[in-house]
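Homework-ish question, so no full write-ups if that breaks the rules, but can someone show me the predicted structure for this set?
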Amino acid sequence: MKFKVKFYPENKEIEAEQGKSVLAAAISAGLHINSSCGGDGVCGRCKVIIRKGTVHTQPSGRISAEEKAKGYYLACLSTVESDLEVEVPPESKIDLDKISDEEAYLSRLKGIFTESVEIDKAETIIGEELFLHSPLASKIFLELPKPDLEDKISDLERVYREIRKKENLPIMQMGLSNVRRLGNLLRSSDWKITVTLGKRNDTVEVVLVEPGDTQDRSFGFAFDIGTTTISGELINLNTKKILSAKATFNKQASFGSDIITRIIFAHEQDGLERLHHAVIDGMNAMIREMVAENNIDLNDVTCCLCAGNTTMIHLLLKVDPSFIRREPYVPTANFVPVVRASEAGIKINPRGLLACVPGVSGYVGGDITAGVLASGISDAEELSILIDIGTNGEIVLGNKDWLIGCAASAGPAFEGSGVVCGMRATKGAIQRFEIDPKNLKVNYVTIGEVLPIGICGSGYIDIISELLKTHIIDKNGKINTSINDSRIRQGEFGKEFVLVDKKDTGHKQDIVITEMDLDNLKRAKAAIFSATSALVKHLNLSFEDVRKIYIAGGFGTYLDIEKAITIGLLPDLPRKKFVFIGNSSLAGAREILLSVDAFRRADQIAKKTTYFELSVEPGYMDEYVAALFFPHTDKERFPSVIK
Amino acid sequence: MKFKVKFYPENKEIEAEQGKSVLAAAISAGLHINSSCGGDGVCGRCKVIIRKGTVHTQPSGRISAEEKAKGYYLACLSTVESDLEVEVPPESKIDLDKISDEEAYLSRLKGIFTESVEIDKAETIIGEELFLHSPLASKIFLELPKPDLEDKISDLERVYREIRKKENLPIMQMGLSNVRRLGNLLRSSDWKITVTLGKRNDTVEVVLVEPGDTQDRSFGFAFDIGTTTISGELINLNTKKILSAKATFNKQASFGSDIITRIIFAHEQDGLERLHHAVIDGMNAMIREMVAENNIDLNDVTCCLCAGNTTMIHLLLKVDPSFIRREPYVPTANFVPVVRASEAGIKINPRGLLACVPGVSGYVGGDITAGVLASGISDAEELSILIDIGTNGEIVLGNKDWLIGCAASAGPAFEGSGVVCGMRATKGAIQRFEIDPKNLKVNYVTIGEVLPIGICGSGYIDIISELLKTHIIDKNGKINTSINDSRIRQGEFGKEFVLVDKKDTGHKQDIVITEMDLDNLKRAKAAIFSATSALVKHLNLSFEDVRKIYIAGGFGTYLDIEKAITIGLLPDLPRKKFVFIGNSSLAGAREILLSVDAFRRADQIAKKTTYFELSVEPGYMDEYVAALFFPHTDKERFPSVIK
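A: Not a homework solution, just the prediction itself:
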């Protein structure tokens, strides 16, 4: 049976099944009501006033006698039993969890931050399907036999018995709040219910019990939480289809561009809270957008899987990351327990689950575990390398028997941050670039083939490569001012080269590259190259011993390997050794979201991987300094480029 | 390191270890601060003002900017880092969970309810130790190797690794709130911590992480939650010693004397909440008293195990019991998940656990499962019967291969309720009674050998038996007014016999037995006898086939089997077949609290036991009516009595 529920003052009306909680109805209506306990009736923040109609409610001490007299109820404990008129008082809408001055503070930085944008869904689909389909949370519809004098087992046992007919689950758990709802829910739904089974490490929890058949509506999110960029996908857990994919800048950047400055900021007054909110607010905004665009009810989003470096995961969960940067650099957790998403402030179904991909160490995180999983390097006989190019770059070398990884602080330049005209690999970003050596005329391709508005990582790689070839810049990255071209000029930020005149751009501003940009990009590529090189040397190997090099990162669908070698980002090896795999962290997160087997495999990968500490490696600093040239001080290491 | 923490306005000062939460310090000081989320920082009810000194706090959105400016903190998220002065504002002390008019309502009934009283600790110790010592929650002290560059696993894995060196636990869980505390706690305690491992069905949770070695301080409660009486024991989980044992009336009695009327009352406005609070308030009062008397810190009480009939367990957990009395009489849960005690309102350590003994059906509950466990009837080859005499009497027949149980609504008379001079089996209760047939002079023994103030169940059995033998009452329980004795008189409640003159009593009031009392006692004994008899007949057995009959109930240490047969409560069988085992439900609860093996055995017992529905049994009503005589209509069934 369905009823109409109208919410005031918004005047929003929706249909809700009998027995649905008023909180769930509000979520379905797209309204925000505070709730921090997962709908257990504990936090007392979801108070509403029932103006008209009947609810079935569980008693709660969080409603005072006066409030009760005024018609107040806890939305999470009250179920729809007739048409309703519900008033949501202002105090139930103010999100106290948000730091009040946060937005004001961030608005000062406006301009850096754009709204989240669509990313190409295809970019990250690689490899075959290796793992059994068994998502982190899955729904099962149950038509329970009604109890009679011959079959009198209790409601809870009846539900368990029916689940066990379909799945072999020795250990099951159910929270008290669901037990409290069970008796009425089973009877009002005529014993037809949908249970959501959540995998919490080695146990299974009956996370949700809903009236009727909601099996078809089962959704989850996969996230890659990068130091600079947060990428997310909304996934249909039944069909495994990616319904939306978006990326947004990580607003934590306003508190420091790399993980070290963020860890330091976390120790300041309110620092941890602000960093935590910067990331969850960004994620929640993306979730809201993608859910709305796909006409999905947020109640049907039951799980969220996150990959990120260790510091990002600590901040996501509001766990103090301080000890990551103090010797001996030990994080609080590499293997994080599966928690209720609402505990971490992630707004999906209030009882939905949040899991994080296990990490290796303080500086080699779950993003790289996810990348190893997605690239398949841990399944191969031959030696491969995975290079994840990001603000916190991570490199793993190994095969099915062993894995070793290290981190390189590259800075955010290749993610389009800290460079004057940088942007993410989204619509309007220059991603391919050429200069005609004869007349220095430029030619470029933007993502979405629209007028350009900025440059993404792969665009910068092309641009530097072309500027080198045409000698507009030298191997130090300095602009050759002896060339007589009006596009070489002194700009607001020093010497610059105008790549696209404002009349040809989407936002009517010149698109330029400055010497400062070139310096940042040079340092970024040097950090990645020297780390990869030091790792290979540390094992007394050479690049020739490596069969495949997987390049990952948020470069969109395009990365010109040839040009990445030209600028000295990647080693000078036969081109066929390189495979560009896009955002492998996000791809791995998606696989883990969709398969408990993949989750187990990720655990094994994280346990198996050895951490290699670059900073204490003799010769690493020399290697880095030598790489601060395009392509390198030692030209012999880039023979094909020199030729 | 220890610091002084002073609480205002109470002016209470205690010493607290560095790193202890302010909430835990308040609990140690014996102060009540609201908290309903188990110290997870979710409910926001434990706000305090730090007047002086330093705390380490986790950020929380439950503290507004203004409150923060005023020095407000959440007590659960803030740890002691110096000497402190802490103000507990009034709003953090008002227990909103209590229904405001509850106490006023109950005070009208004053007089029925006395304070909880000591019960004899020895009464329930029976049998040998069968089960391995492994309590529901156990503490382990860990001296963790400090991390260094050679041993860099994360804090959480380090704790797990150390636990696994001592115990074989494949599955371990830890909540996010403990993970959030872990980094600082490990370092401030110099890597010396005590973890409390809680057994939650087939998984183990790290429930608590405390600085230093608190292994010696590990306590739990066992409760028997009866319809009329709540009995509890404070147990040292290390030594298995019972430190205190108390009993109190179940204040739910003011909403109905039996389970059916309570289930009906639960459906009224606020009914479930009131019944729930009546039981938990009673339990919490007992907990407070026993903890105070033994100088135990409530933080060190980490678990609570409850046995009770199915309705009592539903009300304890605030689960709607309605469906127990609607055909086909199905409860919401017989096997209840282990929950956090604070979720059910039980005030021990806020993260401590609450478990309930599994029940068989709506009318044969966990109290009888516990009794079967304690009596050992499910371990024996021979057939035995367990008769648990209480308001909701329960009878089980069986052996190691099979068990069958039924319930008999006996009313509270044998628990000293609903009878004019009734009281529990505690100090001042008449428990033995004799009348000299020659001169009708009485002789009696009270518990504690003090002046009498009332009569307990075993006293009533003796009294009826003696009144019958001396023909002061007839087989209908009517007082023979033809006897010329001033003690036989018309009282406020009809005809009565004065057992003790007021000058000889402790409270200077006559102690009497009335015809109405005799009627209630007759119906109680008839319910028990006829149920036992019907159960035996139903299986085509006779009492002669039964090897042992275990008699359980809150009779203190004494029950005269001979006299119980004389009044027709027990069948007329060779006296050596009977064994009085006291409160077997409490004894079983204690065994289960102290052993996970015993818990598993209880699960098996509950699963193995068949429920026998008396009310649909042909001939049961006849059997009951025939038993409404002392000893019985059919004298041939009591040959030794007639003789």
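Now go work out the reasoning yourself. Hint: Residues 2-92 of chain A form a domain with the Ubiquitin-like (UB roll) fold (CATH 3.10.20.30).
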